[in-house]
Amino acid sequence: MEKIVICGKRPLNGTVRMASMKNAALPIIFATVLVGERCIIKDLPDVSDINLSLEILVQMGAVCERNGRETMIDTSSIDPDTDIPLELVKKMRASYYLVGALLGRYQKARVGYPGGCDFGTRPIDQHLKCFSALGAKADVVGGYIVADAPDGLYGSHIFFDAVSVGATVNAILTAACAEGMTVIERPAREPHIVALANFLNACGANISGAGTDSIKIRGVKKLHGTLDGEMIPDMIEAGTFMAAVAATGGKVTIENVIPKHVESITAKLIEMGVTVETDEDNETVTVERDPDKDLSRIMVKALPYPGFPTDMQPQICALTCFAKGTSYVSEGVWDNRFRYVEELIRMGAHILVEGKTAVIEGGYVLKGTEVTAVDLRGGAAMVIAGLASEGVTAIDNIDLIKRGYDDIVGKMKGLGADIRLVTFPDT
Ligand code: UD1
Predict the structure, then answer these.
(1) Ligand 1 centre and the CA of 289: distance in Å?
(2) Residue 166's CATH number
(3) Which of the ends of the chain has fewer CB neighbours closer than 10 A, N or C?
(4) Interval between CA 31 and ligand 1 midpoint (Å)
(5) 205 and 317 share a domain?
(6) For atom 13 of ligand 1, which residue has the closest CA?
(7) 206: in domain
(8) 228, 202 in Cβ contact below 8 A?
(9) What is the dihedral of CA 347, 372, 383, 426, to 10 degrees?
(10) Exposure class string for 278-289: b at 16+ Cβ within 10 A, else e
(11) Structural domains of the chain, count
(12) How far, in Å, from the CA of 261 to the mean position of ligand 1?
């Protein structure tokens, strides 16, 4: 069994480059199924969710080749009736983007019910609602999402009841080639929605308004491949490194980041007394904290973009353990995203979870011990806690961290952390 082992209390210093954003890359990878021609995508991150999504496409008959920075994906001869093993689709959430992509191209789809991190109930009612609105019959049957539009797909007016990244992606994929105009009201506004729209537009789609509160899609008959699929930098990876520097002290310049995307994180760090600066060209963010100066308490609520990202909620909670006074971290997206708190308590943190709010009494000394990554970002929170705590922290279940972080150990080590991957015999 592999663990991340950290000897804490070392400041982080230097420069680190972020990978591309996993959650933007996944919709684009599955969108190539809709495109149906050869596409080249640049700078896919090397994380297990991406490798798994490519494996799913290969199982369906696609050709996927990684050559340095470029990945070629050719879905021209996939078999839409492939029964992808359930254990593959259940390893991630984004596999359900296949439903929108297959439905858009073949007017039918049958895909195993997805998995993903456990944040309590993760309904898909808004996905089913958009498939139906566009003319398909869609339901969950015996562990599969099944959708069928024998009479074709037709543009429609969709008003989402919940702001959902996944349902917005599926609505865009389903509507891109539907006949007529689709308007999506109350869509998710995350940068990955904009990245997907840009990619599909480069393939001949007609999508406008992505990133605003109304998306318009005029359906086109056919899409074509592109040689220029661009990725965007990973704002959650950047936020994780920003929080880590704030926790340990030091000075780190983060490259390959869009400062606007991390604004809500920057604002909270500044409130805590951390210096965060953007360079003149708006291409890097530098985070600096004097380890001898106390961090101030904060109140933060995770919300859909442009609010503070729920995918940074565990990391900011870990950081507030090192601030003076009582901090409040509320979750406004998921029912139950505080499973990692018990692991922080194991290290000596004083946290009480009341409903959807964690109340953190900061300033107690945290000491390293054996902890678990309960999910992807909960695992990143344990890395931050370990880096800033006394003694040795050993994190297990790190496959969950590898789902979304491209070489977090190597990058932290490059900044001066005492961190390594250690293989222990299985017990
Ligand atoms: C994506 C991200 C995940 C992030 C989340 C919110 C990927 C692969 N995952 O997940 O890391 O935490 O966005 O930023 O990109 N909802 C419904 N009905 C639905 C769908 C969602 O009620 O049909 C609710 C959910 O219960 C949740 C909220 O909407 O409360 C947001 O969910 P959603 O944005 O869909 O999350 P994902 O796309 O699954």
Answers:
(1) 33
(2) 3.65.10.10
(3) C
(4) 18
(5) no
(6) 165
(7) yes
(8) yes
(9) 120
(10) beeeeebbbbbb
(11) 2
(12) 18
